[in-house]
Amino acid sequence: MPSSSKKNSKKPTARGTKATRTTNKKNTKPTQGARQRRVKETETLRAAEQPPAEIREAIAQEEKQPLSVAATPQEDIQKIRESAQRLGIELDEDEALQWLTQMAVQDKNEITIDAKNFVYGAKVAILDFSPANLEYFRRIGKIVAIPDKAGVIETALALSGSAAQSKIQTNPGDADFFQRVNIQAPTREEAVKILADAMRSKALDTLRGTDYQFLSLKFGTHAEDAKRGAKPIKKGSPMTWYAHDLTMGKFEVELADGTKKAISWDQGMADPGWTKLDWIVADSQRGQLANASNLLDVTWEAPNGEIVPLDGFIDPYFQEIYLDAGSVPIFSKLVRHVDEGALDKYVTDLEHEVYKYLVKHPNYGKVAKRSYNIFRLTDRYAEAAYIRELFDEPTTALYRVWSLFETLSGAQTPDSKLDRVALLKQYDQLIEQVVVNTEGEKEIRIVRALMRARDESLGLQPVVESLEQKFSAPREDVMEILNEYFHDLLYGFQPIAEFLEEIRQRQYD
Question: For the whole model, what pTM was predicted?
Answer without folding.
Answer: 0.80
